[in-house]
Design goal:
single chain, alpha+beta, globular, phosphoinositide 5-phosphatase, 5-stranded mixed sheet, phosphatidylinositol-4,5-bisphosphate 5-phosphatase activity, Endo/exonu/phosph_ase_sf, membrane
Length: about 850
């Protein structure tokens, strides 16, 4: 398999596709090399094809044949919207009469509409017929003036209600496996894990965690081990059947693979994949989940692979991460007008992974004795996941099979012996498989001690899953009946709804505090499509701090729908609300297709916060922001950035007191904290820290949260600054002098005094942390990468930074961390 980068280029009125060879991590121009050029001219074609002996599965990679003159190229592109956009742009330029740019356009492969091409065959599915494409009676065709997609949506909803009349359940065997490989490459056959049953499964769902523990994987989501483990899994599948890879999705070290028996591949459709990072600042992908959803015959299935926070005492953080994955993992549907699908919106959910829930009993010797006696039930009663599920805190409606195998963590790699290191972890069932669905029954649930590559043992579960299979003749009859009923209803009257509430008040809103108000839409006797629409001269239907869930949809006659209005003030909206230039006021317009509009009033008040406030303004605020007069907050927030020491008569603080309080707390309490700046805090802890910074006058940060929570609050504070520590106007200069400490120091000297002080203070603090790297596991590259993206940010309107730009920002910070001797900000640490 050879990897290439494809790029669509326009120059001097001509279009072409350029193919580049590249290193594994293409960061700079030196990492790519032009391989060949295919001119888009007469006779140029691009066509999606199915290679011989392959099947089609919608959602898998796309095989494309490109022809230009005598040259032919067969490439595989990753399935997704970027590939579709790339192919759409190429086809547009193949069409006669397409206007082309007369100016030369230099296209960087990293920034262009591009895809990765691989010379390999794949499987794709033919798009299932929509309602408007299904064969119908003459009367059922073309009766509605509504858009076809809307009519499809309404018909599909009714078909779902009548599903029992034209489907029957058929059993299929699903293999689900999870394995934390501790950053190791495959060194042994996976067949003892994947092929232990005599009968081959119909579907494989295989998940890995800690695929790669390197910094490249963590910061750039790049690893060669994805291909290594993909090949190992493919070789380890049951030899009694042939399988097609449906989908692969990875987030850093969390990998999920989906396979199906080749003879069943044509029954798989609507495949989508998503990822959710729950690491530091709620985004980093060292922890989180990946998911694949698909339709198998008429049953929707969602598979989630998660890796949650470690350490026995962090069960609340794990609970929070489960809730975050459930809330944030949303899948696009093939029809863009349809709402996003959540995990809960599927008939069957399979959840696997290193969930890291451990035992409340942490006496290692007692745990080992119970394991030796095979008294697993006594241990299971102390299992954190069982306790949390029994309390209905997480995984409501999910089930787990009986555990009759010994804990899967922590072993000495290469053996079946328990960990005997200095930490000597108590054994635990970290690796779990759960399910939800009325037609699912578990056939087996076991660990596989034959595999010894990692400090975890792999786990598998085999399920008998009832899948709804459609009878074509009965389906067509139900379809035609629904179309006739719909026609009569549409001609009867215009749609109308009743809203349970039209005015919404959000009191005392705080920074990053998610607030939700609900209301109910009750539909009348006619099917209705609704959507929140833009007001005149506005680009969106609501202000950026507000969102309606769902923002559009449809209602069957007499049905009700619970709606949510969600309000969240973040870094993009906080500054205007702090200054009073923005207000929590909006009018939403709910429009009914072929009906009238309904108006919803939203209002509230925002409590000013140091988050989203400029550095200079905070330096002039001697009191907490909520104790400062609104007029003063407004004037200071809108004050132009000055390089003078005293813009006003009053002498400012050297650095914002809020920043000093957070750094001082970490300096005195967290220099030896393991995984500082790499593990998130709990959300309630951040709420307490924010409130303390915004209201209290004491110079010390009381113990309102863990060290991890304070560290995350510091990062969120820096991210929220409307003008970053390195001012926007000096962004380009920073990148240009990233390899020269002397020139970089000159750039810092050009900063306003308050920004200079903050930069030097933070550098002094980070260098202090590096003195304890043996305890906190930090190194100069980790800190430079994390803080480089916060202190050195591109201005508004700048293209999204590529990897090369991010590395230069990292290098700029790294220079200061590597310098010998004290830095000017050191004295502030001793204050």
């Amino acid at each position: 398999m050879e990897s290439r980068l494809l790029s669509l280029v326009e120059s001097h009125g001509k279009s072409m596709i350029c193919l580049y060879t590249h290193r594994r991590m293409a960061i700079t121009a030196e990492d790519v090399c032009l391989d060949r050029i295919l001119l888009i001219q007469d006779g140029f074609t691009v066509e999606e094809v199915t290679p011989e002996n392959d099947l089609q599965i919608l959602g898998s990679d796309v095989t494309v044949q490109i022809t230009s003159g005598d040259a032919e190229l067969l490439v595989r592109l990753p399935f997704g919207s970027q590939t579709q956009m790339f192919l759409q742009e190429v086809r547009r330029r193949c069409s006669p009469g397409v206007a082309r740019s007369e100016d030369a356009t230099a296209v960087d492969p990293e920034q262009s509409t591009s895809g990765e091409a691989k010379t390999a065959s794949t499987y794709r599915d033919q798009k299932p017929k929509t309602a408007s494409e299904m064969p119908t009676s003459e009367q059922a065709q073309g009766l509605s003036t509504r858009p076809p997609w809307l009519r499809d949506t309404l018909i599909q909803s009714w078909l779902t209600q009548k599903e029992d009349s034209y489907t029957h359940l058929q059993s299929f065997r699903f293999f689900v496996g999870t394995y934390n490989v501790n950053g190791q490459s495959p060194q042994e056959s996976l067949q003892p894990w994947l092929s232990q049953d005599k009968e081959p499964p119909d579907v494989y769902c295989v998940g890995f965690q800690e695929l790669d523990l390197s910094k490249e994987a963590f910061f750039f989501n790049d690893t060669p081990k994805e291909e290594e483990w993909f090949k190992a899994v493919t070789k380890g599948l049951h030899p009694g059947a042939k399988y097609a890879k449906v989908k692969l999705v990875r987030l850093v070290g969390i990998l999920l693979l989906l396979y199906v028996r080749t003879e069943l591949a044509m029954n798989i459709s609507e495949v989508e994949a998503e990822t959710v990072g729950t690491g530091i600042m709620g985004r980093m992908g060292n922890k989180g989940g990946v998911g694949i959803r698909f339709q198998f015959h008429n049953t929707t299935v969602c598979v989630v692979n998660a890796h949650l926070a470690a350490h026995a005492e962090e069960y609340e953080r794990r609970n929070q991460e489960v809730q975050d994955i459930c809330a944030r993992m949303q899948f696009h549907q093939l029809e863009p007008s349809r709402p996003l699908l959540t995990i809960d919106g599927h008939d069957i959910v399979l959840w696997l992974g290193d969930l890291n829930y451990q035992l409340e009993e942490q006496d290692t010797e007692r745990v080992k004795k119970l394991i030796q006696a095979q008294d697993f039930q006594a241990l299971y009663r102390r299992d954190q996941l069982k306790i949390q599920m029994d309390a209905k805190v997480i995984f409501q409606d999910f089930r787990e099979g009986e555990i009759s195998f010994q804990p899967t963590y922590k072993y000495i790699p290469g053996s079946d012996d328990w960990d005997d290191s200095e930490k000597c972890h108590a054994p635990a069932w970290c690796d779990r498989i759960l399910w939800r669905g009325k037609t699912v029954s578990q056939l087996s649930y076991q660990s596989h001690t034959a595999l010894k590559n990692s400090d975890h043992k792999p786990v598998s579960a085999l399920f008998d899953v009832g899948i709804k299979v459609m009878d074509e003749k009965r389906y067509r009859k139900a379809f035609e009946e629904i179309v006739r009923s719909l026609d009569k209803m549409e001609n009867a009257s215009i749609p109308s709804v009743t809203l349970s509430k039209r005015e919404f008040l959000f009191k005392d809103v705080k920074y990053l505090q998610r607030r939700v108000e609900t209301f109910t839409i009750c539909n009348g006797p006619v099917p209705c499509q609704f959507e929140f629409i833009n007001k005149p001269d506005e680009d969106t239907y609501c202000k950026p701090w507000l969102i309606a869930k769902p923002s559009k949809g449809f209602l069957l006659p007499g049905s009700e729908l619970m709606m949510e209005l969600e309000l969240l003030v973040n870094k993009s909206t906080a500054t205007a609300l702090n200054s009073g230039e923005g207000k929590l006021e909006d009018i939403l317009v709910l429009h009914l297709d072929r009906g009238k509009d309904y108006f919803l009033s939203v209002s509230g008040n925002y409590l000013p916060s140091c988050f989203g406030c400029p550095i200079q303004a905070l330096c002039y605020m001697k009191e907490p922001i909520r104790e400062t007069l609104p007029k003063a907050v407004r004037e200071l927030t809108l004050m132009p950035l000055s390089t003078e020491d005293a813009f006003l008569e009053e002498k400012p603080l050297d650095i914002p007191k809020e920043l000093w309080m957070m750094v001082n707390h970490l300096y005195r309490n967290a220099c030896q904290q393991e995984d500082l700046f790499q593990q998130p805090g709990l959300r309630p802890e951040f709420d307490q820290i924010r409130d303390w910074l915004d209201t209290e006058t004491l110079d010390v940060l009381v113990p309102v949260g863990s060290n991890h929570a304070v560290a995350e609050a510091l990062l969120l504070f820096l991210e929220s600054l409307p003008e970053p520590v390195i001012c926007y106007k000096l962004y380009k200069s920073c990148l240009e002098c990233a390899n020269s400490y002397e020139m970089s120091s000159q750039v810092v000297a050009m900063l306003p005094k308050c920004h200079q002080n903050v930069f030097r203070y933070l550098v002094a603090f980070l260098r202090e942390l590096l003195k304890y790297s043996g305890k906190n596991h930090l190194d100069v590259n980790i800190l430079a990468t994390i803080f480089g993206g916060l202190l050195v940010r591109p201005p508004s309107g700048h293209t999204k930074p590529g990897t090369a730009e991010k590395q230069k920002a990292q290098q700029f910070i790294l220079q200061f961390l590597c310098q010998q001797g004290d830095v000017p900000g050191y004295r502030l640490l001793q204050r």
